[in-house]
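User: Hi! I'm working on a homework problem where we have to compare a predicted structure to a textbook description. Could you give me the structure for the chain below?
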Amino acid sequence: MTRAARLTALAALCLVTVVLLLPAAISVSTGGTVPEFFGEFGRWLWPAVGMMVLVAVGLALWERVRGHETSNRAAVLGRVEARMKALLASSLAAQTQIKLGVLRQPKLEVRVEGESLSYSKLEAIYDRLGHSMVLVGPVGSGRSTLLRELCLTLVERARNDPEAPIPVVVDLATWRAYGTRKPTEFTAWLLREMNRRYGISRSASTIWLRRDRVTVLVDGLDEVPRVDRALCEAELAPFASVVCSTGPIENLPTVYVEPLSRGQVLEYIASVSPRLDGLESALTPEIWERVDSPLALNLLALTHLDKQVDTIGTDFVGSFVVERLSGQRGAGPTIRALKFLARLDRPDLGAPVHMPHRRAWLPLLPTRPLWLLFVRAVPAAYAGGVCAVAFLTGVRLGLWPALVFVVAASALLVLVNKLPNVFHPPGRAHGIITAAMAFLAGVVAGFMVGLAGLWLGEIGKPWPYAVVYVFVVVASFFLALGFVPGDAPIPWSVLIAAAPGAAMIWTGPYVVLAGMGMGFSAGVAGGVFAAAVGRVWRTVRPAQQKRMRLGRSWWIQPAVPVLGLVGLLGGLGTTGSWGTALGVALGLLVTPTASRDYVWPFDALAEVAAEGVTRPLSLGELSFRRKALLHLAQDRLLLTRVDGDHRFVHVALRDHLAACDPTALVRATRR
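Assistant: Happy to help. Predicted structure tokens:
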């Protein structure tokens, strides 16, 4: 209520000053009269304006310094608590409790470096070490669970004590997502994370960090690349209170997570009786050495639940995945999809429903879909587009304009093929169906481009003769500037622009403008298509390029001009005007400009086209049924759902799926 009153007063002061006092004061200063309702207070207008401004500035400063802290604290604590509970409920440990009907997991204990005693309450050690420490343990030891439970404890403290700082947990796995490489950018990343995860504004985060009103608990340090680890540790030192890591960090007290004892494991197995009765007798000394963490215990229990256990393999994660998918009909697509998602290297163990940018997943594809794209789909789509545009040009503008377009489009093939020629397939991949579908898509796109070109050619008909004449000459000059290479294109551009200027004396400007509309539309489409293909090729890794043997298929080069000549059949009824043919050639001068990656808006169009071209390539790894696959993996405890997004239940599971052999895994599930 206090903040609402303060903001209301600030808004009222600004409104009265700007709408009422300031105009009246300016009117009086310029010789005007004072409004009657001011009466004898008219001479105090300027002092009143100054006073109002000072009060408004004071309220604004008060809002910046104190406003966020007094109003957002309770809301932020609620969001932190809700997120920590959601993360704990979605963990593999919580899912195991639900599946097995166990009341709780074994209680984890910690030990301070240099001490022999173990403690069950992390918050007591946190207070004793001065609210600063690094929580050390191997992957799967329960560090993240302890960190989140500590955060919930600190949330309760902050609710009961207004002077206690607000705890927030940030995941360093997302640090790479912002491309942070400079030390000054880490603070900006931290502010963005606090805003994205907990709704804390940037200004409030800055103030709270400066005043030590926030306790930053850091998870995911092991997800940071090793080349950035030293920089990351140096940057988080001024902010972090507790850090989870697999090893000690300089200048921070070390607290080790104790491994599970044999008694804890046996007590846990007994609590699930009789569903794990056969498990204890199958635990060999080699297996006992590995069952020392909550992750290993949970995987072991879920894998051998309600089963007659004879032997236990040492690969707990692999056995768990096989058991989870063994009852599924057609496990192959699910395994390939999970492997593909695991290799995407998403922050927060993410398994996205919507595909990210092609740079994240295109290098993960095998050779075959890339070969089908560059060798079959791209030439066939281009040939289909040329055929459709040539047909429309012949039907509406005549044979000569269509012939000029076909010749120019065939020459454009050189621009498209400035990529390395990767025209021999690996193995026996023919791809005729892919080429046919791409050709049909090119025909549809070509008809749309042709209709757009006809519309562009018609918009100048209502214009006066002189306006159209000047427009054609000026447009030809600027189109030629982007077409002519070298350091001095202006003289050549002037000569090119003089050609339509002279031709329009005999043909008139309207027929030239009609041809320019068609040429411009086709040139933009061809240039953007070439730029999109080039962008996709640059995303392909060199190793993938080498696996596609160099050479040319015999039918690729003549396909475009031959199919373009087929499209010329639409122009056999009329020859058309040579002025229109000149307009088509002039419009096509835009092609090199449209194919450049740095010219707006063609660069944006090329990026959209490149994404559209590559999206079908992922269907071999992640089909259209990706939502159903994600829900199936969630039901099998391979994925979980947090903040509306799917996540792998553990980083160890994600890494195993990323490195697995899908064929061998499918065979194992069948056995």
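For your comparison, note the following. Confidence is low (pLDDT under 50) at residues 180-184, 419-428. The CA atoms of residues 183 and 235 lie 7 Å apart. Good luck with the assignment!
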